[in-house]
Amino acid sequence: MKSLFRVIFRYMGTAVLIIIFILAMNVASFIYMGYQTLQKEQREGSEYMRSHLAAMGAEMKETDGAYDLTPEGYEILEETGYVWAMLINGQGQVVWEWKVPAEVPRSYTMADVSVFCKWYIADYPVKTWTYGDGFMVYAMDKEKVARLNGEFSLVLIESFPRNILRWVLLNIFLIVILVAFLGYRFYRSLQPIASGIESLSRKENVELSENGVTRELAQKFNETSRILAEQDRRLSQRDNARTNWIAGVSHDIRTPLSLITGYSIGLSEDENLTQGQKKKLSIIQSQSMTIKRLIEDLNLTSKLEYEAHPLRIGDYSPASLMREIVAEYYNNGLDEKYEIYLSLQDVVESVTARGDVELLKRCFQNIIGNSIRHNEEGCFLNLRVTRVGDSIHYAFQDSGPGISREVIEALESSGETGKDGPHVMGLRVVRQIVLAHGGTLSFEKRPSGNYDVLVELRFAL
C-alpha cells in the first residue's frame, strides 16, 4: 500500500502546487492590471484636467482687486465635475470662491497648503492650479472620489465585479488545462498497469517497466505475474498428472474388465448352471458394463474439462439423431418394463443443425440411461423435441421420481461430492457436452419437488 499512498501524496502535492500557481498568477495579474489602470487613469486624467484647468485660469478676470470667472469659465467648471472651487492669493486668503461649503476654511498658511495640495480639505479631495502669485483650488465629490496617495476612479471600482468574473473564468480555464495535462500524464503512467492487468487476465506473462510514479506498483505487479505464472505451471503439472493417472488407470482396468466380461458371457452359456448362478452372472455382466461406462465417462469428462477432446463438427438432423438413439435401445433388447416415447414437432423434421454427433449421442444416451438405471421397477420415458426460435429444445421426462435437488446441487458444486454424496458423473458429462456446444442444461421442476432434464442447443455453433 505504500506505493499507492506515494501516488496519492504526489498528486496531492501537485494539486497544492496548482493552487499556489493559480494564486500567484492572480496576484501578479491584479498588480499588473491595477498598475496599468492607474497609469492610464492618471495619464488621461492629468491631460484632461490640465487642459480644462488652463482654460478656466484664462477665464478668471480681475476687476479693481475683485476676481470672478466669465460665463464661459463657469461652463467649463461645470463640465469638469468639480463640486466647488476657490482662488487663494499669495497671502493665503481666499479671494474668490464658488459653491464652497461653510466648513471649508478661508485662510491658509504655507504649511496648510503643503498638506492639502496633494490631499484633502475638509474631507474633500482637491486639486490645485497656479494662478498669478496664488493658486486655484478645485474640490472633487467626496462621495465619488478617494485619494490614497493617488486618485481612484469609481468607474474602476464599479468594474471590479466584472473583472472578478473574468478572473474566475480564467482561473477555471487554467485549472481545466492543468488538470487535463496532469490527468493525461497520470493516464500515461497507469496505462501500462491497465494493459498488464488485461494481459494477466488472458494468462499471459507480464513484465512492466519499473520506473516513474508507478514504479512500486509495477514491481508488485511483476512479482504477482511471476507468482501466478509459477502457480499456473504447477496447476498444469497437476492437471497433466491427473489426466495421465486417469488414462493409466483406465488402461490398466480395461484388460481385466474385458476378461471378466468375456468369461461371464462364456459361463452364461453353460447349460449346467442353475437359475441362481445365471442370475449372478447377469449381475456380473451388468456391473461390468457399469464399470466400463464409468471409466469412459471419467476419461471423457477429464478431456472435456481441459479441452483435450476436439469437437468433430458436422451437420446433423436432430430428428434423425433422436430416432436413432431410441431405435438402438430397442434393438439392444430394452426390457419390457421400460417404454420410450419420442415426440417430434413437425418443424423439427426439416431442421439441420451443426455439432459433434457422437458427443451429442453420448449426451442423450446418458440422460436416458440415468432414467433406466434409477428406475429398476420400470418406467415410461417421454422425449420431446421442439423448435424455439433458432434453438432446439430437448425435454427428457420419465414416470419415476425424477432428479432430486441434492443431485442438482452436487452437479453445480465444484465436483467433490464425497463418498456419501450422490453420483453425478453421467450428468456432469452431459453438462460438459452441452456447454461445449454453446447450449444450456436446465431442470424443470415437477409438482412433487423433483426435476426433469431440459437441454437447449442452437442450430449452429
Please report which band the strand proportion falls in: under 5%, 5-15%, 15-25%, 25-35%, 35-45% or over 45%: 15-25%
| Silhouette | rod-shaped
Taking the sheet with the most strands, its summary is: 5 strands, antiparallel
Instruction: Pick out the low-confidence regions.
Output: none
Mean pLDDT: 77
Q: How far is the first residue's CA from the last residue's CA?
A: 46 Å
Total helical elements: 11
Structural class: alpha+beta
Report the helical percentage.
Answer: 55-70%
Number of strands: 16
Q: Walk across the major sheet and give the strand order.
A: 4-3-7-6-5
> What is the N-to-C order of secondary-structure elements (H for helix, E for strand)?
HEEHEEHEEEEEHHHHEHEEHEEHHEE
Radius of gyration: 52 Å
What is the total domain count?
3
Explain how this protein is built.
56% of the residues lie in helices and 18% in strands. It has 461 residues and is of the alpha+beta class. It folds into 3 domains: 2-158; 234-301, Orthogonal Bundle (Helix Hairpins); 310-458, Histidine kinase-like ATPase, C-terminal domain (Heat Shock Protein 90, 2-Layer Sandwich), CATH 3.30.565.10. α9 (357-373) packs antiparallel against α11. 15% of the residues are buried.
